[in-house]
Amino acid sequence: MKCHLNEQEIEENKGGLIIFSATINVTVNTDVVAFFYLGLSGAGCVPEDEAYIPTYLEAFPPLPEKGTPGEKTGEPASAWGSKIRPIKASVITQVFHVPLEERRYKDNSQFGEGEEAKVCLDIMQRTGAHIELSLAKDQGLSIMVTGKLDSVMKARKEIVARLQTQASATVAIPKEHHRFVIGKNGEKLQELELKTATKIAIPRPDDPSANIRITGTKEGIEKARHEILLISAEQDKRAVERLSLEKAFHPFIAGAHNRLVQELSQETGARISIPPPSLPKDEIVITGEKEAVALALSRIRAIYDDKKRKTTTISVEVKKSQHKYIIGPKGNTLQEILEATGVSVEMPPLDSGSETIILRGEPDKLGPALTQVYAKAKSVMVVEVTAPAWLHRFIIGKKGQNIGRITQQLPRVHIEFTDGEERISLEGPTEEVEQAQAQIQEIIKDLLVRMDYTEVFIDQRFHRHLIGKNGTNINRIKEQYKVSVRIPQDSERSGLVRIEGDPKGVQLARRELIEMVQRMENERTKDLIVEQKFHRTIIGQKGEKIKEVRDKFPEVIINFPDPSQKSDIVQLRGPKNEVEKCAKFLQKIIADLIENSFSLSVPIFKQFHKNIIGKGGANIKKIREETNTKIDLPTENSNSEMIVITGKKSNCEAARDRILAIQRELANIKEMEVTIPAKLHNSLIGSKGCLVRSIMEDCGGVHIHFPSEGSGSDKVTIRGPVGEVEKAKKQLLQLAEEKQVSNFTAELQAKPEYHKFLIGRGGANIRRVRDRTGARIIFPSPDDTEQELITIVGKEEAVRQAQKELESLVKNLDDVVEDSMVVDVRHHRHFVCRRGQVLRELAEEYGGVAVSFPRTGANSQKVTLKGAKDCVEAAKKRIQEIIEDLESQVSVEVAIPQRYHRAVMGPKGCRIQHITREHEVQIKFPERDDSAAGQEAPPQENGEVSPEAEFVPRKCDIITISGRAEKCEVAKAALLALVPITEDVKVSYELHRYIIGQKGSGIRKMMEEYEVNIWVPQPERQLDVIKVTGLVANVERAKQGLLDRVKELQAEQEDRALRSFKVTMSVDPKFHPKIIGRKGAVISQIRKDHDVSIQFPDKGDEQQDLIVISGYERNVEEARQSIQQLVAELQEMVSQDVHLDPRTHARIIGARGKAIRKLMEEFKVDIRFPQPGSDEPDKVTVTGLPETVDNAIDHLLNLEEEYMLSVTETETLAAYMKPPSRYGGGPGGVGGADDSGGPAKGFVVRDAPWNAAGNKAPDMSSAEDFPTFGTGVAPKQTSAWGPKKF
Q1: Is 262 buried (19+), middle (13-18) or exposed (0-12) by CB count in 10 A?
Q2: Taking Cα atoms as reference points, which of 479, 483, 477, 484 lies closest to residue 512?
Q3: Is 562 helix (H, G, I), strand (E, B) or coil?
Q4: Does 108 score more than 60 pLDDT?
Q5: What are the strands, taking DSSP E only, across 648-702?
Q6: In its keyword annotation, does this UniProt entry include Metal-binding (predicted)?
Q7: Three-state SS for 720?
Q8: What confidence category does residue 1175 fall into, taking pLDDT thresholds of 50, 70 and 90?
Q9: DSSP state, 203?
Q10: Average pLDDT over residues 694-721
C-alpha cells in the first residue's frame, strides 16, 4: 500500500481523532485509532530537523489480519498491496466521537430531543451537510457528517465549537528548543495545531518562562504534548560548533573548487559552512549529530594546524589592470592554481589601490605557483591610444568598416572606445595589440589632416527648433554640408553644439546655424483672447481650417489650450512681423465668427414648415446659400413652431423676411405692429403667458411677439390671417386699456370636465359671457398644474358680474338630473360603434353627461341621459341634430381597383381617418377577394387607363361613402385623388445597384422620403428604366429626387475614374515591414496624408517586391516619392550583432518589454533578441543608422557589464548556500544529502521488503507501480520576454 497523507484523505477534529473522507468503508475502533496515532506522531511524518530513520514496518504498519469486504482470495499479496484506485467521490463522510466528560449538553431526558438535536438541525440548515447522532454505551456522542467537502468542514467546525468542551495543559522544554517547535515561518507550529486540533501558545523570546500552553480536547492535548517532547528530545541529540580560523587558511580547508569540504561532509555526515571569500568573516559553522560534528571539527583543526606549520608566504607586485586575468572568470584561475600547486593566491580587493598579491603555500611549491601567476598576468596586454573624442566615430568608420578590418585581421584584440574620453583601449596578446596600435595611430594621423570640428554655444530653448519637426532642419544641414552635428539632450542642460566633418562644410554649417538662431531670437510670443466656444470652429473638422492658417503663416506656431483647461488664451509664436500679421488675420476670423453667431427665432405655422423646406429641401437650401445663414427647423413630432436662424444679423433678418414672405403667400398672412407701453408687457403676458395665450387661441392661432425684456421697445408684433390679426389687435388693446384703467383679477374653481361645456361649441358660451360683462375669462392649459382654476380679468364690476354668472352655471352643473329621449333603433349603432366614440365626445363636450343606450336585442328606443340639467338639455339637442344628419344621409359608391386600396388607406388607415373627420362621412371598404387578384387588369400608368383592357369594376373594388350628399361628393373626389399612378424614369442600368444601395438602404430611404413605391427591374433584364408608383405630387417629387441622385452618381463615376490611376513600384521585400510600420502605423499615415490605396504583395505572389499605389495621379506620385524617401533612409541603416550574456536579457528587456522599448525610442534603433531554443542564445541584433547603432550597442554592453556584476554575485552566494530539502536533507537528517547540490534522496526507510534477498525495488518511473492522477503537462519554454499573451 502506498502511504500518501494529505488534507483530503485524513482530517482531524478538535477532539484529536482520525476522520476518514474516502470511498473505502473503514471500521473505527480503539486499536485502529491507537495505530494511526502512533503512526502519525512517529515515523509517518518525520519533522524536517529530525535524524531518526524509521523501519519499513514503522512507516507502513500492516492492517489487521481480517480481510476487507470484497477482497479476492487466493491471490498472492504484493509487498505494496493492491493497486490504488483513484479517489473521485464528491460527497464525503466523516465520523468522530465526543466523550461524555467533554459533552456540553448532558441533561437530556430523551436522546434526540434536547439542545444537541436543535444545534445539529441549525448546523444542517446553515451548511447543507447531513448530520447523524448516536449515543455510545459510555454515554459518549458519535457524530457522522455527510456532504460535500466544504459543507462537511464547516459543519464539523461548528459541531466542535457548540457541542464539545475545551481543556488546557502546559509542557516545559528548554527555551532554546522553542524555535524548533515553531519551525520556519511558523509552519511547524501550524502543522502541529492542525494535526492535534489544539491551540498551542509558545512564550515570546523575551519571556523567561519555558512553559508551553496547550488548549483543546483531552486527547488532542496528549497528542500535542507527545509531539513537543519528541521534538525537544531530537534536538538534545544535535550539536552546533563555530570555529574561528584565519581567513587566509579557508582555501586549504575548502580545497580547490570546494571538493575537500564536500568530501569531509560526506565522510562525517556533518554540514560544514565556510564563508565565501567576498564575506569578511572567519567563522566556520559545523552542524549535525554530536559525534559527526566532533569528528568534522577535529579533521578541520588537523588541516589548519598542518597548513599553519608547513606553509609560508611571498608577496609580489602586479599591475592592478592585470589582476582580473589572475582571478579569471568567477575566480576559476585562482582555483586552478590551487589545484595544480596547492598554493593559495590572495588578491587585494578590487576597490582598493593595492597591487600586492600574496602567495601562501609550502616553500617548494611557491616557485611554480609564482610562475603561473606571472604567466596569467602577462598573457594579456592593455594599451591606450590617445585620440580626440570627436574622431572616435570616424576611426570606427561607416558601419564599423575601419575598425572591422583591424578586428578581422587581429581577432583576439579587443578595442574599446570610451564615450567622452580621448583614449582608446586595446586589450589582447602582446604582438597583436602592438600591430593594432600601429594601425589605429595611422588612421588617427590621416583623419587629423582631413577632418575638422568646431563648437558653437546656442541657447537650449532654440535646440528643438534647430532640429525641426522629425529632424528635418538638422538632417538637411547634415546632408547639404556633409557634416555631423551633435546637439546635446535636454537632460544634459548644455548649450554647446558640436559640428564635425570636412573643414569647409563645418564652417558653412556653423554659419547657417548662427543665422537660424539670430532669426529665432527675433521671435516674439503673443496671446490672443478667443472664447473657447469658437476654438473648434477655428480649428475646423480634422484641423482643416487651422492647417490653412498655418500654411499661410508657416513660420508662426499656433497653440490652442486643452479643452479641459477652460482657457480662452490662444498663443502665437514666431518672427515679430509674421506673428502680427497672423494675429490680425485670426482676429478678423474671430470677428466674423462673433458676427455670424447672431441668432433669432421666427414663429411659423406648423402646416407651412414643409413648404418652407420645399421639394427635396430646395427652398430651405436656397435661402441658406443666398443669405449665408444656418436655419434649424423643429422636428416633425415637436409641438414647437419656432424656426431658429443663425448667422450675421443682417443675413438673419433677410432670411427671416424671406421665410415670412413664403408664409404670407401661402395663407394670406398679415403682420401688424401695435404700440403698447413696455411697463404693461408683463401684465399682458400674464402668469406663464396665460393671458397672451388665451388671445392667440381665441383668434385662430395668431402669433403675438413681445420685444425682449429690457429693450425699452413698445412695439408688439401680431402675425396671422388678416381677419384674426385685426381681432387680436382689438383684444390686445382692450386688455391694455383695462390694465391701465383698473386691473382686477378673480379666480373660480370648476371641475375640468365642466370646462368644455362652459366654453361651448366653438367658444359660443364663454363668448356670450364676455360680451355681456366685458371681462376676460382664461381657462387653464393642459400643461398647467391647477386644472380646476379659471381666471377672470378686467374691471372690478365686470369681473364680479362674470364670476357671478360662471358660479351660477357651475352650481347648475353640480345639480345632477336624469332624463330620457326616444331614438330609433336603427340609429343606435352609430352612437355605440367604434367603442362608443360619439358618446365619449358628447360626455367631453357637455360637462361629463352620461348617455346610456339599451342593450343590443332589447328592442327598446329609450335612451337615458344623466348629468347637470343644462348639460343634459344640450346633449339631447345635439343627439337630435345627429339623428337628423343620419336620416338625411346618402350612400355613394366609388370604384377603385382592389390593388390600390391599401395605398388609399395609408399607414394604419391615416388617410381615410383624415377624410372621415374632415368631411364628416363614413367610408366602408369591401372584403378582400384574393381569387380575383390574378384577373386584375393592367395598372393605370400616368393617370390614363392602359389601352390593353378597360377597367371593369367588381364587388371587391367598390368603396361605399355614407353621409350628407354634398359631403359624400367631396369625400369621393378626395378618395380618387389618393389613387396612385406609375411613371417611368430613364436611368442607366449601370447605376441601378448604386441607387438600390447596400442591402436596399438607398432605395428604401427614397421610398420613405417621397412616400412612393420604386420598382427596379431584375439585373439580368438590363433595362434602363425605373418605375415610380404613388400619389401624383409624390411621384413628381420622387422623379426629381431620382434624377438628382443619377447626377450625383455620374459625378461619382467620373471621380472614380480619376481615382483609379495606378503605379507599380519595386521595393526590396526586406524593407516592407519597415514601410508598413508597427501595427501598420507608417503605411496608414502615408495613405491618410496622400489619400491613396497602397497594396503590398501577398505571401504566395511571384513578384514579392512590387507595391501597387492607386488614387488621383498627383496623390499617387506624392505617395510614391514618400515611399522612395523612406526606402532611401532605410538603405542607410545597418544591422549589427552583439553578443550579450543570456542571463542579462530579461533585465535589459524589462517588465513587459518596457525597458527595451524605451531604449529603442531613445537611440532610434530596432533591437531583436534570440528566440527560445536558438542556436546562438547570446546573439542580439541592432538595426538603425550607423551612429545610433554604435551608441545603442555601447549602451547595451554597459548594461550587460552592470547586470553581470549582480548575476556573478548571486551565483557566488548560491555556491555556498544549500537549497532546502523536502525530506529533511540537512546534515544528519533523513536521507543524508551532501553539499554537492545534487537531488534529494527522498524518503528513506530501513528493513524494506525490496532489500531482502531475491526481491527487487519497484520502478519509480513505471506507471503501473506508481500510477499517476491525471496527465502530466510538459513545461513550456519560457522566453526572456515572459510568458506569451493570448
Answers
A1: middle
A2: 477
A3: coil
A4: no
A5: 669-675
A6: no
A7: strand
A8: confident
A9: -
A10: 74
Average pLDDT over residues 376-398: 79
With cut-offs at 50, 70 and 90, classify the pLDDT of residue 438.
confident
Reported as a pLDDT band with limits 50, 70 and 90, residue 112 is low
* DSSP letter (8 states) at residue 666: H
- Locate all alpha helices (DSSP H) within 863-944, ordered by sequence: 869-887, 901-905, 910-919
Cα separation of 255 and 859, whole Å? 131
Contact by Cβ (8 Å): 886, 922: no
Cell numbers describing residue 1069:
521585400
Q: Which helix (H) or strand (E) holds 829?
A: helix 828-845
Closest CA to 847 of 810, 893, 821, 887: 810
Mean pLDDT, all residues of the chain:
77
Residue 871, SS3 per DSSP: helix
Q: Is the pTM of this model over 0.70?
A: no
Alpha carbons within 13 angstroms on the beta-carbon side of residue 780 total 18
Rounded distance, CA 57 to CA 79, Å? 11
Res 29: pLDDT? 39
Q: State the burial class of residue 42 (Cβ atoms within 10 Å of its Cβ: 0-12, 13-18, 19+).
A: middle
Handedness of CA 492, 493, 494, 499 (dihedral sign): positive
Query: CA-CA distance, 17 to 35, in Å (whole number)?
Result: 12
Closest to 10 (Cα-Cα) out of 1, 19, 2: 19
> Which residues, 6+ apart, have CB-to-CB distance to 1143 below 8 Å?
1203, 1204, 1207
**CA gap 1228, 1019 in Å, rounded:** 94
pLDDT digits (tens, 9 = 90+) for 249-306: 888 888 888 888 888 888 888 888 888 877 778 888 888 888 888 888 888 889 888 8
* CA-CA-CA-CA torsion sign (623, 627, 632, 634): negative
Looking at the DSSP bridge assignments, the partners of residue 790 are 748
Grid cell 599591475 is found at 319
Percent of the chain with pLDDT over 90: 0
Cell of 1227: 546534515
Query: Which phi and psi (to 5°) does residue 51 adopt?
Result: -105, -10
Helix (H, G, I), strand (E, B) or coil at 303: helix
pLDDT at residue 1218 greater than cutoff 50 = no
The residues pairing with 1027 across neighbouring beta strands, listed in sequence order, are 984, 1015
Q: According to the model, what pLDDT value does residue 1256 have? A: 66
Q: Give pLDDT, residue 1275.
A: 45
pLDDT per residue as tens digits for the range 489-500 = 877 788 888 888
Collapse the DSSP code of 631 into the 3-class scheme (helix H, G, I; strand E, B; otherwise coil) and give the result: strand
Q: Three cell numbers at 258?
A: 570546494
Q: For 386-390, 628-632, 1089-1093, 1147-1151, which range has the lowest pLDDT when averaged over its residues?
A: 386-390
Residue corresponding to grid cell 582580473 = 324
Each as own residue / partner, the long-range contacts of residues 119-127 (CB below 8 Å, 24 or more positions apart, any chain) are 119/159, 119/162, 119/163, 120/159, 123/155, 123/158, 123/159, 123/162, 124/155, 126/154, 126/158, 127/151, 127/154, 127/155, 127/158
d(CA 343, CA 369): 6
**How many whole angstroms separate alpha carbon 928 and alpha carbon 957?**
9
φ/ψ (deg, to 5) at 197: 55, 45
Task: List the Cα angle 366/369/374 in 5-degree steps.
Answer: 120
Q: How far apart are CA 1250 and CA 1266, in angstroms?
A: 15
User: What SS3 class is residue 732?
Assistant: helix
DSSP string, 1151-1203: GGGHHHHHHHHHHT-EEEPPPTT-SSTTEEEEEE-HHHHHHHHHHHHHHHHHH
Q: Among all chains, which residue has been given the C-alpha cell 492535534? A: 196
Alpha-carbon distance of 601 to 629, in angstroms, equals: 13
Kindly indicate the confidence band of residue 111, based on its pLDDT and cuts at 50, 70 and 90.
low
Alpha carbons 271 and 1224: distance in angstroms, whole number: 13
